[in-house]
Specification:
Order of helices and strands: EHEHEEEEEHEHEHEEEEEEHEH
Helix content: 10-25%
Distance between the termini: 10 Å
CATH topology of the largest domain: FAD/NAD(P)-binding domain
Structural class: alpha/beta
Number of strands: 16
Strand order of the largest sheet: 1-2-3-4-5
Radius of gyration: 22 Å
CATH class of the largest domain: Alpha Beta
Largest sheet: 5 strands, mixed, barrel
CATH architecture of the largest domain: 3-Layer(bba) Sandwich
Number of domains: 2
Length: 323
């Protein structure tokens, strides 16, 4: 697309990216480099994370090429700055409320404005899967947390539990161990399964203890969490005293906006894409990152998909241009 052929209306765009995590911002960079007038909107109405996305809560990233160690927020800021180095790129922290199809355009309504796009990219990511047991709703934000980086300092020299067994859970536990006196990793299966490097770190931390084959049946307390009831005995008791509970039991795809315009989802509500092109079943609509139907979800794979989607949108617009 040539610059002189782009609409002068500031609310008309070649590509609108919904989601401003590193996947969305990388796609914005790539699209703007291809001379597509591109708008990236910072969050959906169902996602509390805005510019930068969930990766900004990561204290240290060690598997993104080019950086041996980098904080999640720093990586997001670098990608954002790269995207905005192109004049045709815009990034706005507005909550998207709806996306509708109108003839050959998509109307995107936010909490502040309405925009028109010739193509759409969903990079809406995921949200935390909530703990569901007796007492869990009662103690939400009263000792139950979903972000160790955000809340770990509140538990200095205290005893906390981390629910989950993934690599993300292991990373959360490591952050907690730097503040808490004791960290219990509570996992429903036989073994936790972090990456080998993080498993080694877990084993080296004297204040981390792993409880496997166990679920939390109930959260107890007064004004705040004081203990949990386990579904099997640990050290002779079903009750474990805790000052706080951190939950890392997976995430749920934020795909409701895509579903509304006919985009196909799988049983897990993830957006189904052509993994060669990042296309969905709806012409002109693309998806990338944690919201799509893939098993291996990493920052680097999301960025790659975002750039693939931007290039596919470029090809789509070139073939369907009326100018």
């Amino acid at each position: 697309m040539k610059k002189e052929k782009i609409s002068k209306d500031e609310k008309d765009y070649d590509l609108i990216v919904i989601g401003a995590g590193i996947t969305g911002m990388a796609a914005t960079m790539y699209a703007a480099r291809l001379e597509l007038k591109t708008l990236c909107l910072g969050k959906s109405s169902s996602n509390e994370i805005s510019i930068g996305g969930i990766i900004t809560t990561a204290e240290s990233i060690e598997n993104y090429p080019g950086f041996v160690h980098i904080a999640g927020e720093e990586l997001a800021n670098k990608i954002r700055a790269h995207a905005l180095s192109y004049p045709l790129a815009s990034i706005k922290a507005e909550g998207v409320e709806s996306v509708t199809k109108q003839k050959d355009l998509f109307l995107v309504k936010t909490n502040e404005n309405e925009y028109r796009g010739k193509s759409i990219l969903f990079a809406t990511g995921t949200k935390w899967r909530k703990l569901e047991c007796k007492g869990s709703k009662e103690f939400e934000s009263k000792g139950i947390s979903y972000c160790a980086l955000c809340d770990a300092p509140l538990y200095k020299n205290r005893i906390v539990g981390l629910i989950g067994g993934s690599d993300s859970a292991a990373k959360e536990a490591l952050v907690l161990s730097e503040h808490a006196k004791k960290v219990y990793i509570i996992y429903r299966k036989e073994k936790i399964h972090p990456e080998p490097a993080n498993m080694k770190k877990i084993e080296e931390r004297e204040n981390i203890e792993i409880i496997t084959n166990t679920n939390i049946a109930e959260v107890k307390g007064d004004k705040r969490v004081r203990a949990v009831v386990l579904d099997r005995k640990y050290n002779g008791s079903n009750e474990l005293a805790l000052d706080g509970i951190f939950v890392a039991i997976g995430r749920i795809a934020i795909s409701d906006l895509a579903k509304e315009i006919g985009v196909k989802l799988n049983e897990e509500e993830e957006i189904i894409i052509n993994h060669k092109t990042s296309e969905t079943n709806v012409p002109g609509v693309y998806a990338a990152g944690d919201v799509v139907d893939k098993q291996f979800k990493q920052a680097i794979t999301g960025v790659a998909e975002g750039c693939t989607a931007a290039h596919s949108a470029f090809e789509y617009l070139r073939k369907n241009s009326k100018n």
